[in-house]
Each structure stands twice: as structure tokens, then as C-alpha cells.
């Protein structure tokens, strides 16, 4: 493993934190995600929020995707940068590269652009999970399917 691969978070992360700090008090557009065990939907709040502060998060954890910083916004929420896909100014959709203040590259690649293979076994697990919830007998949620056959897999990506 190269020495650069062991650095977490990477230099692009720190550049993003500095860009966010340079835009305190300004409206920003967020693209975020939540994790519930078997899916990770991409959420867009629909309107900009004003960026009030960028603060250090006391318990970063790369395994759980928790980065060392939180954004505090005027809607009263604190959002960990590990749960944000992108923060941009000016426009919410398809921002120009110079309008993107922060981009969580590994998370964007994993959730948005990575090919998935939905096997019969995974579909059976997902159906069993949902049926169990409807009938009041919950089961553990199925894992998010991995990469398609023949595609490289990042170590620890799904763990």
C-alpha cells in the first residue's frame, strides 16, 4: 500500500474544508445521504441553507464514514462531512467545478457511479426483510450489493 493511500482524510478533503470556511454566512446547496443498513438514498433538501460554521467533530471514524468536521447551518442542523456528497454555491443541480466547495469523492463514486449486481439471493433477502417488517417480525436488513462481476473492490468499502 502506498504511503499516500494511508492518509485519511486526503488533501482534497482539507481543501474542501478551507473552501467551506471561506463561504461562512453564505447560502449553500447540499446533497446528502443517510444510511439505514440496506439502502443509502441521496437527499436534496430543495432549497439552500446558510452556512454558519465548520466545526471539528470529536469522534471521526473512517469505518463508519464520519469525517473530522461538521457543518452547522441555519436550519438548526449539524451535518458531518462524511454524510454529504457535495456542497455547492449558486445552483443546486449540475454545478460548475468552481461552484463545488466540497465533494466527497469516495462516497459519490460508491453510491452514485459504481455498477451494482442485484442477485436473486439479494432480492430474496430484501423481500424477506420488507415482508417481516409488514408482519411485525423484523429481520436484519440485507447488505447493499457489491460491485458487478469483474469490477475491482475497495477494501473496507462495505464494512
Report on the architecture of this protein:
Residues 134-159 are annotated as: Disordered. Residues 150-159 have a biased composition (Basic and acidic residues). This protein is of the alpha+beta class and 159 residues long. The protein has two domains: 3-113, no CATH class; 115-159, no CATH class. It is built from three helices and seven strands. The chain has helices at 11-21, 105-113, 120-134, and strands spanning 27-33, 42-43, 49-56, 69-73, 78-80, 84-88, 100-103. Strands 1, 2, 3, 4, 5, 6 and 7 form a seven-stranded antiparallel beta sheet that branches. The radius of gyration is 18 Å and the shape is elongated.
Cα-based radius of gyration, to the nearest Å: 18 Å
Question: Separation of termini?
Answer: 19 Å
* Count of helical stretches: 3
Biggest β-sheet, characterized? 7 strands, antiparallel
Q: How many runs of DSSP E, i.e. beta strands?
A: 7
**Fraction in beta strands:** 15-25%
Structural class: alpha+beta
Low-confidence stretches: 147-159
What is the H-and-E element order?
HEEEEEEEHH
Can you tell me the overall shape? Answer: elongated
Relative helix content? 10-25%
The mean pLDDT is: 80
Total separate domains: 2
Features:
159 residues, alpha+beta, 2 domains, 3 helices, elongated, disordered C terminus
Amino acid at each position: 500500500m502506498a504511503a499516500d493511500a494511508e492518509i485519511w482524510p486526503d488533501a482534497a478533503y482539507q481543501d474542501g474544508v478551507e473552501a467551506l470556511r471561506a463561504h461562512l454566512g453564505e447560502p449553500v446547496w447540499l446533497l446528502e445521504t443517510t444510511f439505514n443498513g440496506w439502502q443509502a438514498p441521496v437527499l436534496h433538501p430543495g432549497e439552500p441553507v446558510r452556512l454558519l460554521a465548520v466545526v471539528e467533530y470529536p469522534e471521526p471514524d473512517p469505518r463508519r464514514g464520519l469525517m473530522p468536521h461538521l457543518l452547522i447551518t441555519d436550519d438548526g442542523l449539524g451535518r458531518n462531512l462524511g454524510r454529504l456528497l457535495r456542497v455547492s454555491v449558486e445552483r443546486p443541480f449540475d454545478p460548475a467545478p468552481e461552484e463545488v466547495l466540497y465533494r466527497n469523492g469516495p462516497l459519490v463514486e460508491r453510491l452514485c457511479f459504481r455498477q451494482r449486481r442485484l442477485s436473486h439471493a439479494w432480492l430474496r433477502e430484501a423481500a424477506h426483510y420488507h415482508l417481516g417488517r409488514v408482519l411485525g417480525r423484523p429481520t436484519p436488513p440485507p447488505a447493499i450489493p457489491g460491485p458487478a462481476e469483474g469490477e475491482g473492490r475497495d477494501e473496507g468499502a462495505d464494512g
